[in-house]
Structure formats: structure tokens, C-alpha cells
Amino acid sequence: MEAIKEMAILWVDIKPDSIPAHQLLTYQYSLSREYEQAMQHIEKIIELGGDARVDGLAVSSSALPLEDKEAILLLYQSLYAKYPNNHEIGYSYALTQRNLKEYDAALEIIEPILNAAPEFEAASVLKANVLYDKGQLEEAIEYAGDKFDDFPSNHNLGRLYATMLIENKQLDDAEEVFYSLLTKYPQASRLKLSHAIVMLENKKVEEASAAFEQLIDSNQHANEAYYYLARIADSQGNFNDAIDLYQKVSAGVHYEVSLERSSFLMVHNEQQDEMLNRLAELRKKPGASPLKLWLLEVKLLSSAGETDRMNASLNAAIQAFPEDDQLLYARAMNREADDDLAGMEQDLRKLIELNPNNAIAINALGYTLADRTDRTQEAFELIQKALALKPNNPAILDSMGWVLYRLKQNKEALVFLFKAFQQFQDGEVAAHLGEVLWSLNQTTEARDVWSNVLRKYPEHEVLLETINRLDPELLIIIENPPTEDEQATNKETSSASTPETEQVTPEAPKE
Q1: Tally of CB atoms within 10 A around 241
Q2: pTM of whole model > 0.85?
């Protein structure tokens, strides 16, 4: 690149009026981020009456750091001040403003240009984009629609207009726009794909399927086409066809989701062996992500209830990636579920050794020691450290409340459990909060917490175990609630036998 730049400089020295020489040097200076020098040669091309490709820097600035964008903006501002009637420069100036999200300023520049040169299509596209960027979707759609009527062959404008229609749920109109563009650009494969996807969204499954098949036959966007055909088969319950189609997606944005879905369907079809063999083969391929494939395998085996195979896969994965925190944590949790507390502690200790600030691992170890062993003081110290690292994490707040309860500090425990419950009304947190309330003789409040959360999680094991142990009658009441007449009778009896008192919702205790 440096050699090309040196040759371009030499060319300009020998032929200072050579437009191609200045164009090449402009490009080279742009690549090396020497924007001021690039702009000097753009200005020279303008003076010589050549095609300066003024917008080149503006277009490329969208991906540049903020400092570079601002430098380019100042250069366009200066150039536009010298050539206020040059619409290309004004357009480039406005485009750079858009890239800096200075939308109102961009519109101020572009409006007079469009008034003077309504045939300037790129400026119309820019205005539509700026309106869209500003969040003025309805106005942007109306403007883009009017301009698409004026410039029906403008590919960029049509795609932008259709995209905005899709966002506004005007799918039929978007389909018409793509169809209109296809009549003018029948070989544009990206348009074919977009049109097919919108047809699919419009429930035109047969037409969309035919379009996807055509793309595959012409070897254009085949991965995307296979993916959408797989989704169609999947939605229709044709799982074998869906598996086959998903497996043909070999690259692109849909590859990972296709891999996961096809693997899941194989498990659903009780083809675990085939699924495991396929993932093993994929791990051997160049460019594969073996860790992701191991994690997927463990996840699928877990969801299928294949505990022995899952443990075997976890062990093999950890042998390949002995320091991966996701694998170690997953095995620790599985070991805890299998009552292998020593194995669980070994994995969590390894995680903490690898990252002493891993609050999740520290909390998991502390909570398990508090809940399932008599090492309560050690558990408290671990949870205290985790809480210092993540003071607002509801799981850690719950752990602190629980370990304080195990240390017989019930009122202090209540403070942390209320905080946890306010953030995360989970069955386990509800079980802990209710148990501490119960221990403090706040039985009505405990029942309220348990019954409300049990309605959301009727099969939560920890919550059911806690209620069964402390208040089994509550389960009978929840399963067989009193009728309206019984509720009225109970209310009358209660009113007759006790003086009226104001009902007050209990507040969380003050820290």
C-alpha cells in the first residue's frame, strides 16, 4: 500500500493535472486515514472538472471512530463553504452529519439541495434514512413512498422503503415493493430472498417455498434458503425433512440456530446416538468451535433427561477445556443434584481459584454449604464475599438471608430476603422468606408469600417441600379454595367474634 501511495505521489508530481492520479492518491490517503490530504486532492479534482467521488470519505466514515468522523465533518464543512452550490459536497457533508447522529443538522443541509435539485436521488434516500433514524417512522414511510413513485428503479430507496413497511407491520405493501423491484432487477438475488421472506411472513408458504428452491437451484443465498425451508418443514411437523434441511445450512447468521434446532429435533426423535456422532464429527472440522459444540451437547442431553450421558459428555468436555467456567459450573451443579457435595466443592473451588472474583461460584458454594452442611460460618464468609462483589444480586441476597437464618439471626435474615424477593419472586426465594416469617410467628404473611408464588410455580419442589413441612393445610386450601358463600360466612363470623381492626400490609423491616 505504501508503494502504491509513493507511485501515486510521483504520478501527481509528474502530471499535476492528471485527474486519475489525484483520484488514486485520494483513495490512498483515505485508506491511511490522512483525511486532510485526501480532501486536498478531492478539491483539486473539482477544480480540474473531474469526477471527484466526493462522497467517498462520507460513506466510509460510518464505520470509523468518533474522532475520525469529526475530523472528516470539519473538512466537508470547509469544502462546502468554498463550494456552496456543489450539491455533491453538500450531500456528503449531510451524510457525515448523519453518521454522527446529527440528524437535524443533516436535514438543514439536505432540504435546500432537494429543493434546488429534486432529481438528486441519493439526497432523497438520505432524507428518508434521516427521518427513519430520528424515529419518525410514519413520516419516513410517507416520504419514501412518494419518492419511490418518482424513482421506481432506485434499488436503495426501494429496499429502505420496504424495510420500513415491514417494521410498521405493512407486510402486504412491503411484498409489493419487493415485487416491483424484482420486475426491474430480476437477477438481483438479495431481492429474491427478501421477497421470499416477506411472502413467508404473509403466509404464502407455497410461493415462498418455490422462491427459496429457485435460490438453491441457482446457488444464491443457499444457506438462508435452506434455513427458511427448514423452518417451514419444522412448523408443519415434518421433523425429518426439517432436520435434513437445517443440516444443509453450513455457514452464515443462521448456522448456529440451525445446528441447535436440528440437534434438538434429533433428540426429540430419539436419535441421540446420531446427534452425538454428528456433533463429534463437527468438532473435528477445521474452523469449528468445539467448546460451543460441547456446551450444546450437554444442554441437549440435560433437557432430554439423559443424566449418565450428560455427565460423560461434561467430563469429556472438561478434559478438553479444563478451565472453562461454564463447563465447570454445570458439572458442579449436576454433582450437587446427585448429592456429590465433595465433587461439587472441588469444581467450584477450581472456578474460584481461576477467578477469585467469580461471585456466582463463590455464592453457589456458600449457599450449598449453608443449606446442606453444618459448615455455616464458612458459608457465611463465602456469601459475604460474594455479596461484596455483587451487592444487588437477588440470588446472593437470598443466600445471605438463608445463611443468617441458619445462624439463628432471623430478623437480620428477613432484611436480605425481603430485598431478594422484591427483585426476584422465585419459588426458592419465596420458600426462604416464608420460612423466616413463619419462624417469627408472622404466619399470615408467610402464607400470603407462599400461596401467591405457588400459583405461579405450582410444581416448585423447594416451595412445596417447605409448605409441606411447615403448613401442609395451606396446600389443601389452595387446591380446594372456599366458595363465595363460605368466604362470606367466614367473614360474618369473624366480624361478629372480633372487633373491627384496620388491615395493614406488613412492611419489610428496616435495616
Answers
A1: 15
A2: no
Q: How many CB atoms lie within 10 A of CB 461?
A: 11
Tell me how far apart the alpha carbons of residues 80 and 54 are, in angstroms, rounded to a whole number: 11
Report the percentage of the chain scoring pLDDT > 90: 77
**Three cell numbers at 356?**
477469585
In 3D space, the residue among 335, 326, 421 whose CA is nearest the CA of residue 372 turns out to be: 335
Tell whether the torsion through CA atoms of 232, 235, 241 and 243 is positive or negative: positive
Residues 295 and 327 sit within 8 Å (Cβ to Cβ): yes
Determine the pLDDT at residue 484.
55
Contact 383, 396 (CB under 8 A): yes
Can you read off the three cell numbers belonging to residue 15?
502530471
| pLDDT for the residue numbered 493 | 42
Side chain identity, residue 227: Y
Neighbours of 338 (CB within 10 A): 12
Whether the pLDDT of residue 81 is over 60: the answer is yes
What are the extents of the domains in the chain? 341-414, 425-492
CA distance 423 to 393: 9
State the DSSP code for 89.
Answer: H
* Rg, the chain, Cα only: 33
Residue 34's alpha-carbon distances to 10, 63, 72, 262, in angstroms, are: 18, 16, 10, 50
- Determine the Cα–Cα distance for residues 42 and 22; give it in Å rounded to an integer: 7
Residue 228 class from Cβ within 10 Å (0-12 exposed, 13-18 middle, 19+ buried)?
buried
Phi, psi of 280 (to 5 degrees): -65, -40
CB atoms within 10 A of CB 480: 8
- The CA-atom distances, in angstroms, between 408 and each of 69, 298, 319, 372, 399 are 62, 39, 42, 16, 14
CB 205 within 8 A of CB 193: no
- CATH architecture of the domain covering 341-414: Alpha Horseshoe (1.25)
Q: How confident is the model at residue 510 (pLDDT cuts 50, 70, 90)?
A: very low
Give 47-60 pLDDT, tens digit per residue: 888 877 888 888 88
167-197 core/surface letters (b: 16 or more CB in 10 A; e: else): eeeebebbbebbebbbeeeeebbebbbbbbb
Give the C-alpha separation, 504 to 219, whole Å: 71
Tell me the one-letter amino acid at 496: A
What pLDDT is recorded for position 464? 94
User: pLDDT by residue (tens digit) across 342-368?
Assistant: 999 999 999 999 999 999 999 999 999
- d(Cα 415, Cα 425) in Å, to the nearest integer? 15
Identify the CA nearest to 413 among candidates 429, 428, 398: 398
Do the Cβ atoms of 32 and 5 come closer than 8 Å? yes
